[in-house]
Specification:
16% of the residues lie in helices and 21% in strands. The strands form four sheets. The protein has a three-stranded antiparallel sheet with strand order 3-4-7. It has a three-stranded antiparallel sheet with strand order 6-5-8. It contains three helices and ten strands, in the order H-E-E-E-E-E-H-E-E-E-H-E-E. InterPro entries: ADGRF3/5_N (IPR057400). It comes from Ataeniobius toweri. This is ADGRF3/5-like N-terminal domain-containing protein.
Length: 168
Amino acid sequence: MELLVETEYVVAIELNLTDITTVDFLRTLLNNGSNFLTLNPTVNVTQIGLTTVCSPSNPGYQCKCEDQYRWSCDQCLRYGSCDNITDDTCGCIKSIPADGRYCQSLDQYNFTSCPTTTPTSTPPLVYEYLISIEVKAEDVTSVEELRNIIYPISINSNTHISEINMST
């Protein structure tokens, strides 16, 4: 008596398609529940999943995840996310991954947390100018008034006079 052993395989197939209508056709098959295909009397395909669709985007490629699939945080950061990183995942990256890792299932993949980074702010640049102004005043009281000004003087929120020196 021959004993039949049923074996289940998970096979990943990469399709290089240039016609978006073929991708849309595959989406339609999946959305209609057409996940059963008999290849021969002993081989049945019981589930098909479309995970990632990459397409040309200026200046390279953009890879988007299908429903229920996401990029891990490290992939989002490595290749640049073209949508928001939420829950430590993103749905679109700005490249085709060189390592062959495509979008992962939300149900089957344990996504790791994105590293927290504190934004570094650069201090505003402060410029100092030395400006010489010649004042012609015949009245000594005008010169005394200039000597008695309390500094700094704010001209506006970005410009301040910190001191005045009288030379002659």
